Structures are given as structure tokens and as C-alpha cells.
Amino acid sequence: MAKPLEFETVEEEVEFWESHSTADYWDDMEKVEFEVDLRRNLLHPKLVFIADQPAQCPRCHHELEETVIQYVTLHDGRLVMIRDVPALRCRVNGHEYMLEKTLDQVEQVLNLEKTQKLRPAEILHVPVFRLGMAA
Ligand SMILES: [Zn+2]
Hints:
The protein has two helices and four strands; from the N terminus they run H-E-E-E-E-H. It has a domain at 36-120: Ubiquitin-like (UB roll) (Roll). 19% of the residues lie in helices and 24% in strands.
């Protein structure tokens, strides 16, 4: 068994994993569960995050157009919207992509929002209904 991995900094850890395979450390790893949907865009649930701007749609190879979307997510149990977030949309099949650097910006806003260091640009009022109201 390899010695336990300890890193002083995130950079050190990133550097380590860029040159080592996690497969070699599989047995030493703890099983953890975490919520991967934490940053899910409720209006664009199939949004795919990509590192670099592709020349064409990675899935169907059609042309991509630049667009803006509203990023709506649940954050600490509250619904939060970030307006006019740049994204890429496949002209033919509507596949949607967002660059990881844009997601980083979204996370920055959400983190500042969490610590209440950002005042919202506006507050939306959302109508709420109950199913039985139609009866
Ligand atoms: Zn496509």
C-alpha cells in the first residue's frame, strides 16, 4: 500500500494528479458521495461544460452559435438567477455548451452571493401554485 497522499496546496495536488494515474491509488481511496448536480442549471439541465471553444458541435458536428442563457440554480435552498451568461448552442440540434471559465465566473457570483457580498441586480417575484387549486 502506498503512503497516504498529503498535499500542502491545491496546486501541489493538481500537479501530482497531472502526472499520476488515480488507478494506481484506487485501493487507498475512500468512497465519498457528493452532489454533482449542485450547480445544475434548472432551465438548461443538459448544458455540457467544456474546457475549450470547439470549432463545431462535439456531439453532432454542426455549427455552433454564440448565445446567452439565464443560469438558474438552487443555491443554499434558494433559487438564484444569473442573467445573460454566454453559452454555445448547436444550430441544428440545440446541444448547449458552456465554457468552464464561464462556469468559474458563475461559481464566483454564487460564492459571493452566499456570503452576501453581492447585492442582486433585481429581485423577481415568482407565482406559486398548488396542484389542487385547479380543481
Ligand atoms: Zn449538436
